[in-house]
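Our collaborator T.R. sent over the components below with a one-line note: 'Predict the complex.' Nothing else. No constraints on interfaces, no templates requested, no preferences about which chain binds where. So this is a plain run: every listed entity goes in together, and whatever single assembly comes back becomes the starting point for the next discussion.
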Amino acid sequence: MRGPLLLAAGILLGSLTASSQETLGAKSATHESTTVLRFVSWKPDNPHAWDEALARFTEAYPRIRVVREIAPHSSTAFHDLLTQKLKNHDPTVDLFLMDVVWVSEFAAAGWALPLDSLFPPSERIQFLPNTIEAGSYQGQVYGVPLRIDSGMLYYRADLLRKYGFEPPQTWEELARQADIIVEGEAPTDPGLRGYSGQFKQYEGLVCNMLEFIGSRGGQLISQDGRQPALATPESLASVRFVRDHIIRRLASRAVLTYQEPESLAVFVQGKAVFHRNWPYAWEVANNAERSAIAGKVGIAPLPRFPGGPSVAALGGWLYGISAYSQHQNEAWQFISFFSSHEMQKFFAIKEALAPSRTALYSDQDVLKAAPQFRDQFAVFQAATPRPRTPVYPAVSHILQRYFSRALAFADVDLEAEATSADRQINRLLRLTGESF
Amino acid sequence: MTRRILLGVGILLTVGLSLFPFLWFVVTSLKTQKEVEAIPPTWWPSGSLDFYQSALVDHHLTDYILNSVLVAGSTTLLALGIGIPAAYALARLRLPGKVWILGALLSISMFPQLAIAGPVWQILERIGGLNTRWGLLLPYVTLTLPLAIWILASFFKELPAELEEAARVDGCGPWQTMIRVMVPLAAPAIFTAAILTFIYAWNEFFFALLILTQPERQTLPVGIALFQGEFTMPWGELAAASVIATLPLVILVVLFQRWIVSGLSAGAVKG
Amino acid sequence: MTSRAPLEHQAAWWMLAPALAFTLVFALYPVVDSFFLSLHRIFLGVPALGQPFVGFENYQTMAGDPVARQAFLVTIGFVLVSTALELVLGLGIALVIHEHFSGRGWVRVAALIPWSIPTVVASQMWRFIFNDQYGLANLLLFGERVEEYIPWLAYPGFAFAAIVFADVWKTSSFAGLLILAGLQVIPEEVYDAARIDGATTWQRFWKITLPLLKPALLLALLFRTMDAFRVFDLVFVMTQGGPGDSTLVLQFYGYKALFAEGRMGYGAAISVTVFLAIFVLSLFYIRGIGSRLLEKEPA
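Returned assembly:
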C-alpha cells in the first residue's frame, strides 16, 4: 500500500526539477551545436510576417533556433514580467524587446548589454536620430530600434468627406467636427462616438496625455526636474480639456478602461470617428477581415492647441541583449539580421511598420506599398520622448495616477493633484540624484 | 409556513447566486467568436467547442495544467509529510511549551504574502530556485502547513489514548506508534487536509507570478491572469480556459464536500 | 512513565523539526528581513546609489505619501464592506444549509463552488460580467438598449464595488461554513425549551441563535478580515488599481513598489506596515474570541 504511494510521490517530486525544454514544440534540434536563442517579445499583430522573417533567419543561420516567448501586450505588464526575469537572472532570456522608456532603467541596473562595440557609430547614423537617442543611456547604446512608433490620428475619411471636413488641425476643431458628425449620424448609427483612445491607468495613458499637454507647449517633468511641470497653466488646461471634452463628451467613458486593443476594436467596429493609435493600427484598420471600415480610414498628425506644436509621443521598441545571456554573439546576429535594411524594408512593405532606418523613407518600393510614410516622416522625426530616467517606472506610476484621477473623478481638485504629483516626482528625482 | 417559504427562497438564492455567474462563463465558452462579439450579447451558445480547442492548443493550456498538477500535487504530499508528524507531536506527545509552538505555526497563516515576498524571492535567488517549480513549492508548503497541522492536530487530539498505550506496551516508539496506529486512524483528517492543501496550491497566484516567469513552467492562475490575445481580448478562449481550470475543483467539491466542510469548520468547532 | 519523557521529547522535536525549519526560513526570517530592508534606501534601477541605511525614512515617506494613504483607505474600506457583507450572507447560507431538506448535499456543493474557483478565474469572470460591451451585468439591466450600457469599471465607485462584489461572491460561502459549524454545536434542547416558552422563530433567532453563534461569527470575522487585508488577485486582474487609484489596495501598491518600480526599501516598508496592521488586528480578535471561550467554560 505504501510502496506505490511513495513511488508516485517520488515521480511527482522528481518531475518538478526536470527540464521542460522538450515542451517547446519547435522543430527538434538536429545538430548538437544548435544554439537555442530565447527571444522575449509581445505577440505580434502580424504573426505571419514574423514567421516568414524568422524562417528567413533560420535559412541564413541554420545553427540558431529562435524560441519566441510571448509577454503581455500591455507595456506595463510586459515590463513587470521582463524585469522580473532579469532580476531572476533568468539565463534562458537571450534577447528581448525594450520599450523606449525602459532603456535608462535596464542600462543602469545592468540588465541590458552595452552594444557600443557591436553597433558602431557608422551604423547608428543610418537610423533616425531620436530612435538611437532613445536606445542610449549616458553615452552608451543599449538598444537597436526595431521600428519607430509615434502617436497618430486616425479618422473616418468617409465621414469627414460626407460632412465636408478636412482632417482637424486643432483639438477644438476635432471636437467640433466630431460633434457634428455624431449628431448627424445618430438617426442611423446611434452607437457612433466621436473619439477613442487609451486612458486606462497604465503606460499608454502617459503617452496620450503627453500629446495633449505637449501640444499646448507643456511638459511632464520640468527641464531640471525641480520646477512644477504638471501644475502649470498649459498642462492643467490640457488635462481639463481631455476631461471635459474627450472623456465626458466625445468618447464613451469606457475609454478609461481601454488599452490599445480595446480602443482599436471600437474604431474598427466603426464606432468612433477619430482614433489615436500607433502606426500599426493602419494595417489592422484596413484589413477587411478584421475591420468593418477597411478602405474608409484616414491618417494625419495629431492635432494641437492654438499656438502649440503638434506633438506625437515617441514610442517604439528596441532590441536588447540580456546581460545574463550565454549566447550574446548569436543574439547580436539575430539583431543585426532583423534590423538590417532588407528586413526593415520587408516589414515596412508587408506590414506597414514604420522603419527606423532613414533611407527607407525615400525607398520607392516602400513608399509605393505604404504611401502614408511620406507624410508621417516629419512626424516621426519630431516625435517627443517621454522623460528619461532609471526610475522611470516610478515616475510613470505617479503620472498614471495623477492623470487617471484627474479624468475619472468628477470633483477632483486638479491643481492640488497636479502640485502633489509634481512634488512626488521631483522628490524621487532628487532622492536618486537625477537631474535633467 | 413562512419558514418554509423563507427556506425555499434561501435555497434558491444560495444556489442561484453561487452558480449563475459562473454559468455565464460556461455559456460564453461554448459560443463562436461571432456570438461572443454580438452586442447585445446572446443568451444561448451554439455549443461550439472551438474555444476549448484554441485554449488548449494555441494558448498552451496543457502546459499550465501539467504544471499546476505537479506543483499542487507535490505541495500536498510535502505539506502532509511534514505536517503529520508535527501535528502528531503537538497533539499527543508531551513537550514543554507546545502551545506556543502551535500558536507560532498557526500565526503564519495570517502573514500577508507581500510581507515575505521580497526576502523569499532573495532566498530562492541564492539557492537557484527562481523560475523552477520546486522553488515555488517552498513557500507553498510553508503557507499550507498551518492549516494542515491544525486539521490534523484537532483530529489526533480526539483519538482514544488506549490504542496508543497498547502500542507502547508492545514496545513501539513514538514514530512507530504514529505510523502504525495513529496515521491509519487519522485517514479522514489526512484526506481533508490533502484536499484543502491541494486547492490552495492550485489557486495560488501571488508567488506563482513572482517566481515563475518562464511560460512553460507557469501554473494555471498565472496563465489565466495574463491571458491575452493578438488584437482583442479573447473572452471566449479565456472562458474555456477558466472552465477547464475550475473543473478539477468542482469534481473535488462534488465528491468530497463533506470532508471539505468538516475541514474548513474544524477551527470553528474546536474554537 | 517519567523515564520515557526524555525519549518522547526527543522524538517530538524531530517530528516538529521540518515544519519549524520551513516556518523559520520561509516565514519568520523573511518578515524580519523585510523590516531590515525597510530601513534602507534601495533603488534597483540605480545601483550607483548603493543601499544606505536611512533609519525610518521610508516610513516617514509613507506617512506623507498621498498614494499610500489612498491605498490604506481603499484597503480599509474594502475590508469593512466586504467582511460585513460576507458575514451577513454567510449567516444566511449557514441557516439555509443547516435546515433539513432533501437535496441539502447539493445545495452545499453549490455554495462551495465559488469558494473553490481560483480567485484569478473569478476575477476574470467578474471583469467579463462588468464589461462595457459584452457583459452580463449590462445585458441583465438593459437588455437590448445597448446605448444605455455602462462601462462599470470606468467609474471609481463602481470599480470599487465590483471588486467587493467579486470578493463577496467568492468567499461568503466560506464564512457560511464557519458559521454553520457554530450552528451545529447549539443543542436542540435549547430551542425546545424556548418553543415551550412560546418564543417565535424570530425571537429564537435573536435571543438564542445569534448570541450562541458569537464565537463562530467572530472566528469567521477573523478569517475574513485577515484575508480581505491581503486582497491582490482581484485587483491585479480586474482593475490594476484604477481608475484613479480607486481600487488601489496595499498589497498591490507594495507589489508595484517592490517588483515593478524596484523601490525595495520603500516597498518593504509598505509590506511591514501591512503585516503589523494584520498582526495587531488579529491580536484584538483572538483576545475577543479567547474571552468568549472563557465565559463559556467557567473552569
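Summary for T.R.: The two ends of chain B are 35 Å apart (CA to CA).
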